[in-house]
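Board notes (copied after class):
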Amino acid sequence: EMARVAERWLLASVPREPLWRGLNMARGSYWGSLGNTPGHVNHWSKRSFVSMLSSHGTVEEARSPFPWTMLLVRL
């Protein structure tokens, strides 16, 4: 849906797994779900995120600022 409504570029980000869950647990949150944020249903590695968005355009840049994975995609 994001690729459909964007015109030429898409900037997308996801939390970097399993780092995200570990950070949640380090701050004492979501122990019952092993650090998984409520409502967080997808767990992306950088490789799988690039692969998924590559099917919608050209990934021009991929960066991993702590604790995220961010992609700039030309549609």
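Comment from the instructor: Strands lie at 9-15, 58-63, 68-74. The CA atoms of residues 11 and 72 lie 5 Å apart.
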